[in-house]
Amino acid sequence: MSLFVANATSRRFHFNYRVPEVTRLFDTYIEPGHQYKVPQDGPDEIKHIVHQLTQYGARPRSEIVDKDFSGIIFDTKPISVESIRAGMSEVDEAAIQRALDERQKNVIAADHQVAKLAQEAGTGVGSLTLSVQEQAKPGDNPNDLQNTTVAVERGQPKSARSAAEATKARSRARN
Prior knowledge:
alpha+beta, four-stranded mixed sheet, 8 strands, 38% helix, elongated
């Protein structure tokens, strides 16, 4: 029985593992899009290495569509180029989704701050729309850029008090 480990990330993977009955640490580097055949081929050794891999997010070839997929694939047969490409695509899509989720969180936080400042000033706020545009760096593919608009909707603006009334209210609260 053989074990193959493939790197479906865009970074070089430093693969470290131990096998039972041996104190030495085994390690190798797996380049992006490449795979490595583990020289140990005993069933107990492979089971032990697979256990180590899964602890750190590696998945069998059949389970690469997973939100927690780390980009490392393993199988007992050589891993096809199509499977490695599918894994790379999954890693890229997950990274894009995480970035979009972070943008949404940032917009909600900005909206909260604007609403808090408006409340302190005694005015109301309607809604907030934030547009995020990525700028290409040298070597970037412009088609890979993600431009998004995120909106936070809330009810109609609260009735606004005059700035003088808001100042008086703040000074009364301090005293």
